[in-house]
Amino acid sequence: MSQKNTINKVDLVVIIDTSSSLRDDAATISNVAEQVIENVTESYPCDLEITWLGIEGIWHGTPFSRTLRNYLINSGVNESELTGLKVSRSNGRNDPARGDGAGAIADACNHFDWRLGANRAIFYLGELGISSDNESLDLDQWEKAIAAAKSALVRVHSYRKSAGDNVAISEQTGGLSFIHPLDDQGWSSALLSVVAASFTPESYLGIDKYSPSFELICPQPSLGENQVETVAIAVTNKYSNITFRDVTVFLSAVTIDERTPVPNLPDEIPPILLQPNTPIYFGDIDPYNPDIEPVPTATIRPIQIETRGSISGEFWLNIDYSYSAEFSVKKQETVLV
């Protein structure tokens, strides 16, 4: 039985300022992005999707091959709903719109096609942070971006190339902040840190060792040709403080050994038929009470195995099962008052 939780989903949107000062950073990220993604896959149990977008521009030869505006419009967003500054071709590479981080973050938070159930994260890469020395900064727009991130439950991480104050949106949304130029190793570490901070660590309790005991009760050690044999599956609870709820068994397959399936007969006729072929419901299996019974009592359900044709011998019956475990804990503590 698989005891794995649903893999954590993470949607990470990396948004970069496309004014000329970030050219080197875009190139450095391009050098390390593929290796970082491999490291993420090996290190973190998450279903990660990274989308690389430029603010009103792109960086050729890097992952930033689409603009945020075009991505959102192609996803079905009406352009009139976007609040980020729109580039004017006459301004060239240093058009203020290319560094409008506040507008870009707000638009991504409000309109990105986040997957259902995914943790949402933005990694914003810009030239300047929030600082009173930055006269071009519209603090009202940053407040709107912070509000949009909080409303959309997006954690915003940030990289600021120039010296100055931290980017407040990261502080207020639980994100990480990085400052000053980074080399290949620095960018690898930063990207891995952002991913690690973007997914929810599993608080999953592995209960494989706390499971019911299953036994096949079979009067015959092997099956003959064209034989119908009634056997039984027995489930017992050997624990005195655990109730196993809704125990259900699914007859999976009959195999020659632990893995090898029994080959079909001519015309693809199944060689062995199991009944019932629906899930076998055992219900709740109560805790074992050693004061009342010397050994745990088994709950038993019959099943029928029919061999066809010339099939005979010893076989393996594979089953899948599901249940939930309810723990009963009694402790006594002395509390100082």
Secondary structure: helix percent: 10-25%
The number of distinct structural domains comes to 2
- Give average pLDDT, whole number: 81
Termini separation:
47 Å
The helix/strand class is alpha/beta
Classify the beta-strand content into a percent band.
25-35%
The CATH first-level class of the largest domain comes to: Alpha Beta
List keywords for this structure.
single chain; 6 helices; VWFA domain-containing protein; Immunoglobulin-like; 5-stranded parallel β-sheet; 337 residues; alpha/beta; Rossmann fold; 4-stranded antiparallel β-sheet
Give a brief outline of the structure:
This protein has six helices and twelve strands.
Ordered list of secondary-structure elements with their pairings:
Elements: E1 8-17, H1 23-43, E2 46-55, H2 68-74, H3 101-111, E3 119-126, H4 139-151, E4 154-160, H5 168-173, E5 177-179, H6 184-198, E6 213-217, E7 228-236, E8 242-255, E9 272-275, E10 280-285, E11 299-307, E12 316-327
Parallel strand pairs: 1-2, 1-3, 3-4, 4-5
Antiparallel strand pairs: 6-7, 7-11, 8-10, 8-12, 9-11
Can you offer a commentary on this structure?
With 337 residues, the protein is α/β, with parallel strands linked by helices. It folds into two domains: 8-198, 3-Layer(aba) Sandwich (Rossmann fold); 213-327, Immunoglobulin-like (Sandwich), CATH 2.60.40. 22% of the residues lie in helices and 29% in strands. It has helices spanning 23-43, 68-74, 101-111, 139-151, 168-173, 184-198, and strands spanning 8-17, 46-55, 119-126, 154-160, 177-179, 213-217, 228-236, 242-255, 272-275, 280-285, 299-307, 316-327. A five-stranded parallel sheet has the order 2-1-3-4-5, sandwiched between helices. Helix 1 (23-43) crosses helix 6 (184-198) and helix 3 (101-111) packs parallel to helix 4 (139-151).
